[in-house]
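A quick word before the example. In earlier lectures we treated sequence and structure as two separate objects. From today on, think of them as two lines of the same record. Here is 2-amino-3-ketobutyrate coenzyme A ligase written that way.
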Amino acid sequence: MVEWLRQRSRPYLFSNSLAPAIVAASIKVLEMVEEGADLRDRLWANARLFREKMTAAGFTLAGADHAIIPVMLGEAVVAQNFARELQKEGIYVTGFFYPVVPKGQARIPHPDVGGAYP
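And the structure line, produced from the sequence above:
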């Protein structure tokens, strides 16, 4: 029976092991989760502050109750220019525009508000 299942189970036949870097990163993440909620608490505090400040500055934000806060910019050229200027300041973001998102809904999808990086 085991041999028959091995013959018929394509995922078993063609599965690959995980790359060592993926395994190491996964172990590190699990260690961080077990260490406590400090990073998570800082993430949520930073997300709230980011949302408050950006809204006060007149930006339109999408999404709610999560730390990925899309900054809605409308046109593709605006998102591209916005991303380029942020990158000049050392903030790595990518502008998303059509066909990734609907026309007229270009955005910067996920500025890092986590604070896990120096």
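Notice the following. Residues 37-118 form a domain with the Aspartate Aminotransferase, domain 1 fold (CATH 3.90.1150.10). We will return to this example when we discuss secondary structure assignment.
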